[in-house]
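Researcher: Let's do a round of design. I'm pasting the structure tokens now; please hold your answer until I've finished.
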């Protein structure tokens, strides 16, 4: 029983972590191409 609870807590915390990372990567951008590697390369060339 205790192992099942620990596995559920571990899996839920991993999913929460991945969800936060995905949110930051895709939805919290102020500029639509802020995280785009191509736009950063173009900005570096200017």
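Researcher: That's everything. Go ahead.
Model: Designed sequence:
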């Amino acid at each position: 029983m205790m192992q099942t609870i620990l596995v559920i807590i571990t899996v839920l915390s991993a999913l929460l972590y991945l969800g936060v990372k995905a949110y930051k990567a895709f939805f919290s951008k102020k500029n639509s191409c802020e995280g785009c590697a191509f736009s950063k390369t173009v900005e570096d060339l200017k």
